[in-house]
Here is the input.
Amino acid sequence: MLDSKVRILLTGASGQVGGDLRPLLPAGSVIAPGRADLDLRDAESIKKFIRKVKPDWIVNPAAYTAVDKAESEPGLAFAINADAPRAMGEAAVELGIPVIHFSTDYVFDGSGTRPWVEDDLTGPLGVYGASKLAGERTLAESGAAHLIFRTSWVYSSRGKNFLRTILHLAQERQELRIVNDQYGAPTWSRDLAKLVIHVMEKLSDRSTAGGGSAQNAVRAMQGVYHSTDSGQTTWFGFAFEFLRLAATARPELKLARLVPITSSEYPTPARRPSNSRLDCSRLQRVFGFTMPEWEESAAAVIAELLSTENTAATRS
Here is the structure.
């Protein structure tokens, strides 16, 4: 269990991963600044803020995630996804603390069919992936003790994400056309939050037992770890399973018919990887943590979503 006296700077606490992580951390230990307090577009202000609050850990799930918009806003994407991690890393070196950071399957070009391993050659297809890859590198180059969790297709029961959009549109339309030739693993943000807790507890125990620092414990295991829910599917398969679960739980719902299409039939400003499968065996081997099957997590999220809808309907 994490020591409640440990101070943790958590960015993006209003987002999916940060929002699920915050309640799992010890009460009173979390520093969760809003945008007015921590401007991720300004590297110098980031360093000043970190020096001021003096955390024991930095956990950074915050990111610029507007994949298509990034094509027309490369400066902003790189400021938040590349310059901010560098600033966090440099401040972490000054304070002697570790950094946990999140990255994405978009660092790869999506070729082939086998799951990507951490040491495979990267080749992002667009600005978003390039900015996230740059963030991995700037953090490593800063010299900070760091862990980088590459993940994919993150969703939750709140916020803006594919799953919530599909549920909303499926109740408004008669037909939805969903891409069926891009493969990956939908990953529940809460599973990632639980991963962070597991890793922090493991490393804290190690540093305590060895009489060392969290920084040294992280440095002994630092690097990139692929971290997605288990299994694989397509965006169509994800939507199909999710709506199947919704229809089973709420037979009265009238839901759209799903039609599988190819990526070429749904052009977007930014190209998506066709193969976003990530091999998570290094995570299992080093930290002894196995991510749940994606279908299991999807069932938990649909139950949570429909429960929330029922509660809202009762209150109204």
User: Anything to note?
Assistant: The chain is about 45% helix and 15% strand. Residues 74-95 form the longest helix (22 residues).
